[in-house]
Every structure is written in structure tokens, then in C-alpha cells.
Design a protein that fits this description.
This protein is of the alpha/beta class. It has helices spanning 5-10, 51-63, 74-86, 100-108, 124-131, 153-162, 175-178, 213-226, 232-242, 245-264, 282-288, 304-314, 356-367; strands at 67-71, 91-95, 115-119, 136-141, 167-170, 188-192, 206-210, 269-273, 296-301, 319-320, 330-333, 346-350. It binds pyridoxal-5'-phosphate.
Length: 371
């Protein structure tokens, strides 16, 4: 039956038998009955198997028509993917402005022969040059954080293919519902499920998706060997959250776009960043993110850090917090993190599911402390 990916997401784990629960149970199990041999394919031990991972992986992989492996965190998923791909390629070409933790992870693996190379993914000549001369992996995150820059995934996939390098896309910010890297030529996607996908600020989890079955198996082998397994309870919560992702990510994107447009006209705001707003990449954003730009937007307040901190304190709806993708709107001044290179007055907001009219009024009220 030809069904959309939203419908597939809900029907990936069919309830077929009389008496089946419509919500799968949480299986708190470290051991499974096994009379035969481990090669038989059945479950036997909790570091290898969990019905709760399997249910989540079927739904999550189904969105992209891909295999899926879930992990204890997004960072654990990245680590397993680096180990799996690093057996063949030691050079990891990664955008300078990609997630700080991923760059830190690659740096920490230098003593194990991993060679991170930082590039501007908008400069295709620089990417091409970095991939030349040694077996490499291209690791791209888009939209970036906190400036929400959109990189051309189809073009980067072609460059990677020509160099014989797998392309990994960190697709956390907009999720596989809004952005389709595997359709555009990526080898694998990496996700922090901690953000919009689990969506309720109550679980830390990660995943890798790929249509290369052998790669998914190697990534799962690393999960088993290194032991960075998700807990059954977290997998269950994330699976429950995932079922409403289509509704939530659409609403978050609508709210973020409405707020971005509103802030562009505000006298106290000197810059606004959201996918599609920058004229240089507006066409690309429309093509690559046709259904929305995700929950994150950033803006710079005139008056630097003090002004931005005052605005953050004055809000009644945006909770001061890091991370993003929850049902409640949050924001923070990014430069409070020492590794952040954003302007002192840059506020990164994650739009939740409130009514846009309330969010816009709240931000106006908060910005009015500067008058
Ligand atoms: C949060 C995040 C990660 C890391 O995920 P954790 O679940 O915190 O380990 C990786 N990439 C991006 C883009 C993220 O936002």
C-alpha cells in the first residue's frame, strides 16, 4: 500500500493480534530465554537487544525508508558512526560551525589516528580540496547552529561521491520529516533524539539512519561492543513522542517563521537568522526544506550581552534553557558558552507549541525593557 511517511510513522509497528496493546509495553529485561545458539537471531541479553529499541527503530527508520540504530545519546550515535566509518577513512572533513560536541569528539579521537579537518561547507572548492588526497568522510550539519545557515546537500553529496567519501548529515535540527538527506545522496544521517524527535524535554537519546544495511549493522556492532545502549524507558518515551512529531515540527516551524518575520521589523533587533531569510540561500532553503525550517531561530539584540540578558530575563513565556525542540519555548544567549563564536547579543530561541500571537506579544514585551 502506498502511504505517506506520516502515516508510515504511525503504522510501523502493526497491532495485529487480538488483545495486543496499542501502546507497546516497556520491557525491563536484561536476559531473554534462549535454549538454542546465539547465532539463531533471537534475543538473549540486554546489551544486544531490546523490543523497545526495535519498535522505535522501525518507526524512525520508516520515515526515511532506511535502517536505524538507536543509542544512549546523539553523541554516542556519532561516536559509533565515526568508529564504523573510521575503519576505512581517518580524515573527517567537518563544517567549522557544526555542533561543538561533534568537533570535540573528533578532536578527542586524534590520538587514535582520526584527523578532523574544519571547512566552510558553503565553499565547495574548500570542501573538494579537503577531501582530496586521503580517504575521507564528509560530515555536514545543516541548518547550522546558531546562525541557521543552509548548506546545499545535493551539491555536497555530489562532491563527496566524486571523492569516494561517505557523506554523513547531522539532521537533528530539522529532522527527517523536514529535510531528506538520504534522498539527496547522503550515506547516513545522525540524530540527537533529545531535541524535537523525543520532543518533551524528558529523554536523552540518539540514532543513526542509513539505507546501507551493512553500515547499520556495523554501527549496531559498535553499540554492542562499546555499550552505549538506550534505556528501554527512554526508548519508549521517545517512541511515544515520535508519533506526534509531524504535528509538533510543523507548529514549531510556523511559530519560528512568524517570530523571525516579526523580529526582522523590530528596531531593537539588528539581525535575524532563520532558514530561507538570507537572500543568498532562499531558493536553496525552499528546495531543501519545503515544509518548514524547524524550531530554531536566532536574533541579535542591539546593546550586546547586557541588553540580551535583560530581554531574556523579561520574558514570561520563553524559559531560559539550553538545547531545543521541546513543546515549551526556550531561549538563551549563546555567547554565555565559552566555546561559542556568536555575537555577544545573539539570542537563540527554540519555538514550542504555544500560540504564535502569545509568543510574539511576549517577545515584544521582553524587548520593551530596552526602551
Ligand atoms: C544536541 C545535539 C547533538 C548531541 O546530541 P546529545 O543527544 O546531546 O548527545 C548533536 N548534534 C546536534 C546538532 C545537536 O543539537
Amino acid at each position: 500500500m502506498d502511504i505517506t511517511r506520516n502515516t508510515r510513522l504511525l503504522h510501523a509497528n502493526p497491532v495485529a493480534e487480538e488483545g495486543d496493546p496499542l501502546s507497546e509495553p516497556i520491557f525491563l529485561a536484561s536476559k531473554y530465554r534462549m535454549a538454542g545458539n546465539p547465532e539463531g537471531g533471537g534475543r538473549f541479553y540486554g546489551r544486544y537487544h531490546s523490543p523497545n529499541w526495535e519498535a522505535l527503530e522501525a518507526s524512525l527508520g520508516g520515515i526515511e525508508e532506511a535502517g536505524c540504530a538507536t543509542f544512549a545519546s546523539g553523541s554516542a550515535a556519532s561516536c559509533a558512526l565515526i568508529f564504523a566509518l573510521g575503519a576505512k577513512a581517518k580524515r573527517f572533513v567537518i563544517a567549522r560551525d557544526s555542533y561543538f560536541g561533534t568537533r570535540k569528539l573528533l578532536d578527542a579521537l586524534r590520538p587514535f589516528s582520526i584527523e578532523p579537518v574544519h571547512v566552510d561547507c558553503a565553499d565547495h572548492d574548500e570542501v573538494r580540496a579537503a577531501l582530496a588526497g586521503a580517504p575521507s568522510v564528509l560530515w555536514v550539519e545543516t541548518p547550522t547552529n546558531p546562525h541557521l545557515i543552509v548548506f546545499d546537500l545535493a551539491a555536497l553529496a555530489a562532491i563527496a561521491r566524486a571523492a569516494g567519501a561517505p557523506l554523513v548529515v547531522d539532521n537533528t535540527t530539522t529532522t527527517g520529516l523536514l529535510q531528506r538527506p538520504l534522498d539527496l545522496g547522503a550515506t547516513a544521517c545522525m540524530y540527537s533524539l533529545t531535541k524535537s524527535i523525543s520532543g518533551h524535554s524528558d529523554a536523552v537519546l540518539g540514532a543513526v539512519t542509513s539505507r546501507d544495511e551493512e553500515l547499520v549493522e556495523r554501527v549496531k556492532d559498535w553499540r554492542t561492543i562499546a555499550g552505549a545502549i538506550p534505556g528501554p524507558h527512554e526508548a519508549w518515551l521517545t517512541h511515544r513522542g515520535l508519533r506526534t512529531l509531524p504535528l509538533r515540527i510543523a507548529r514549531q516551524s510556523e511559530n519560528a517563521l512568524a517570530l523571525a518575520r516579526h523580529l526582522e521589523r523590530h528596531a531593537r533587533v539588528s539581525a535575524v537568522y532563520y532558514p530561507g531569510l538570507d537572500a543568498r540561500t532562499a531558493d536553496l532553503a525552499r528546495r531543501q526544506l519545503p515544509e518548514g525550517g524547524g524550531p530554531l531561530l536566532s536574533f541579535e539584540v542591539r546593546g550586546g550581552s547586557e541588553a540580551a540578558d535583560a530581554v531574556i530575563r523579561a520574558s514570561q513565556l520563553f524559559v531560559p534553557a539550553t538545547s531545543f525542540g521541546g513543546v515549551v519555548s526556550t531561549w538563551e544567549r549563546r555567547a554565555r558558552w565559552s566555546a561559542e563564536t556568536a555575537a555577544e547579543g545573539l539570542i537563540r530561541a527554540s519555538c514550542g507549541l504555544e500560540d504564535a500571537v502569545d509568543l510574539l506579544a511576549d517577545v515584544d514585551r521582553a524587548l520593551a525593557v530596552l526602551d
